[in-house]
């Protein structure tokens, strides 16, 4: 009788432990992937909000119109964000202690700092840099671009030519003054609109390309992306390809360039270069933080920067 009781006790203790070990892996993987999805999604908010701030506070031409923002939120970002749910578990996931429901939050302070500052903040700066480069190469410095809308520049078409050569009016009858550069070049209303559409396309391209680089860094929280496998998540690859296809269509297909559509213009290869700065930065930053998380889990980098 005592032998039977002991055997039942051993089985009762062993079976739940086995089931717990088998159930922990999917549970930990789900929590990890959900956190990765949130981190990735939050990172593109700053580059979308900054153009609105520049437009309202300093009267810069709006760098992202509403349709562009919707296309990012509803199309280009959806695929990569969903693909993170298919990410396989990282190697050390079973070595972590059980998650403390009171202390371990899905969105923690380090997560917000990373998404809004180290990822989103830096991509915002690079998007703004590319946007200003379009005007700078046309001879228009940033100080001249500020408050340009208050002076009537970069008006919305259609335009009607006036009696004087170079004079244009909007459909509301408002005069669009020519924009004069320091080297003596003059941009009339149609030229200003083309330049503005090109700058919009530059911001749009840079934002999406930054997120294309960022998605690979979000696929692993503590191990190197090389260990996780660059091509191990086939869904992520398809999602990035679809994202790039949508971006290329918006910028390079004429029907999407119209004033009542996305208001873009074709970009030459020069404006494809700035986002590579973000590529080098984000991979270096994340690989460095992950190295510290793996080798110094109690260090300040792991505690304050590890997400």
Describe this structure in words.
The chain has 307 residues and is mostly helical. The protein has one domain (28-95, 104-150, 203-304): Calcium-transporting ATPase, transmembrane domain (Up-down Bundle). 60% of the residues lie in helices and 4% in strands. The chain has helices spanning 2-42, 45-58, 66-76, 78-83, 109-137, 142-145, 189-218, 225-228, 234-252, 275-295, 300-304, and strands at 159-161, 168-170, 175-176, 179-180, 186-187. A 3-stranded antiparallel beta sheet has the order 1-2-3, with no helix packed on it. Strand 4 and strand 5 (186-187) form a beta hairpin. Helix 1 (2-42) packs antiparallel against helix 7 and helix 5 (109-137) runs antiparallel to helix 7 (189-218). It is elongated and about 75 Å long. The model is unreliable at 1-24 (pLDDT under 50).
